[in-house]
Design goal:
heterodimer; A: 298 residues; mainly alpha; two-stranded antiparallel ribbon; 71% helix; 3% strand; B: 392 residues; alpha/beta; Rossmann fold; 2 domains; 7-stranded mixed beta sheet; 12 helices; 16 strands; elongated
Amino acid sequence: MEYFIQQLLNALQLGSLYALIALGYSMVYGVLLLINFAHGDIFMVGAFLGVFGSITLDLPFVPTLILSMVLTGLLGVTIERVAYKPLRQASRLSVVITALGVGLLLENGMLALTGANPRSYPQDFITTTVYNFGGVSISNVKILIIVLAAVLFAGLYTIVQRTKWGMAMRAISYDKFAVPLMGVSQDQIISLTFLLGAGLAAAGGILWGVAFPVLNPYMGMRVGWKAFIAAVVGGIGDIRGAAIGGLLLGFIEIMVPAYGASFGISSTWRDPIAFGLLLIILVVRPTGLFGVARRQKV
Amino acid sequence: MAKRFISLALAVVMVALGTFTVAAQDDCDFVGEVVIGVIAPLTGDIPKVGQSTVEAARMAVEEVNAECGLTIDDENYEVVIIIEDNEAKAESSVAVATRLIVEEDVIAIIGPQASKQAVPTGQVANDRETPMISPWSTNPATTLDRPWVFRAAFLDPFQGPVVAGFVVSEFGAETAAVLYDVASDYPKGLAENFRDAAEAAGVDVVAFESFTTGDTDFSSQLTSIIAANPDVLFTPQYYNEVPLIVQQARELGFEGPIVGSDSWGTPDLIELCGEACEGLFFSTHYAPDIATEVGQTFINAYEERYGAKPDDVAALTYDAFQLLFTAIEDANSLDKADIRDALANIELFEGVTGLMSFDEQGDPIKCAVIIQIKDGAFTYYDSACPAGFPPE
């Protein structure tokens, strides 16, 4: 039992991180029908801005987190204005290629700026304390990640469901031609979407860096792919789907090696089994867990 | 950093120019040149390895030329090196090795470093009957059944038993666990070698868990390992993964010792891992604070020249040059076959990385050192030697 609870906590930590990043993919897709492949690299920039805040400016955790979320959010808005907005009338393929290009620019720009040596946060950024409850070890970092991710998600959900801005976002994702006619500024709503998505990715980046303190400019690629998969499985375009998809992916990635051995499967089989399971979900529900089929008007 | 970049840039320029003649004493009356090829990964994935290679090679050559080069039949020959970049690619390595042998007519080749390039390049050197010494490659295939190919590093199948013996003697371990990257040849091979050696030594390997290159979350595997309650955890991973493994293991409540292998030996490890890695052990080729006179002289000279402590690549490259110089003077000839025989017959050579002699495959018989991370530095702790070595 302790073993299961321990693995469940491990899964919650990893899943919460995936969920935070998946939210950005899902929101942007919901509003623009664009798969923002630069999102993983925006997450990386968020993590590195944490290094900037904590080492260069010598700030403690909370100000660093806020600084990175704000700056990364603005970066997200800037990327949209500079790289995606001019292509809003172009074919979707052009925008996807542009997104890939932006991702490469961020990766290699960061590489040029900071060098190839891996970085980490200072030792006193968050002092790890480990609590032991009857054989289950839980660190303050784990609690922080799980709680903060839940709080951020709840905040986002409130914004999307309960505010006028959120209503406008949902309306644009429903019909992006009719909504501007109602006097809602499409550009503002799109900017807000990028601001929120990139800000959450930055929070994910900093928490990721606290949990896994080896940061390099390419870290966003792999994490980004996984978060993208989580968003698709959850039903891309729906923020509850992104959260559930992220948690599900974390759960599968932890539980397959945790219990595979009792079925004679070594941990080597983690990825084939994990992604096989996700594939089955998509076969049964092609639009993902929360997704709604969109009818394409021809 | 700027200084290093300049030296690397210089090396690249040298490659572009083709040859590089080291400034030599005027009063030595050189009657000829001994041309040695160096193959190093100056660009590509592991430029740091290339940089260390070139630095150590230039130092070895300048030192020998300052002492009037190599003496053959009482006449002085100047040593000249030709440095070629293999871009950390196997195919480029084969191409430059062929060029060095056929067009530049080198007498021997030092390099390539990584097994990925050293294994195919060894075939070229062997087919063209040119002595080659790979300083850093640890894969058995590099020298296997290739009489012309030698190396300066010990092999993976030796390192596994070294660590297994160490955990028994140091910690009295009765059970052990292994966590390794299943998608990378070096950790996978070493993990298996360790498991076999540990079981032969009576240690029960209670968990043998793997992950895939690029993973950062090992909590699932580590929780399984902790549930199996091993006395010690062995993880033959690289310096960018070890900090994550160690920190997560501690967070999940593992209190036993964690040991590693020569891939730990990059100073970045200490910086990234901090307090968590303090007191841990790993096996490697050499210790920067090694006590022997030869080692100390090399380290001081290197530090004076380049402003940094030499890593294991630099130490092994320097040793490879010294082995070759010894063989050429022993052979007293510039004939490749004579040099090959002399290399194979080196009885007991004292290098920066310790005493060594060659077995029939051209692999060195030498001791490994155990390093402890102590006060934020790699500190020499112990040596582990093959049975009956060094001879009394």
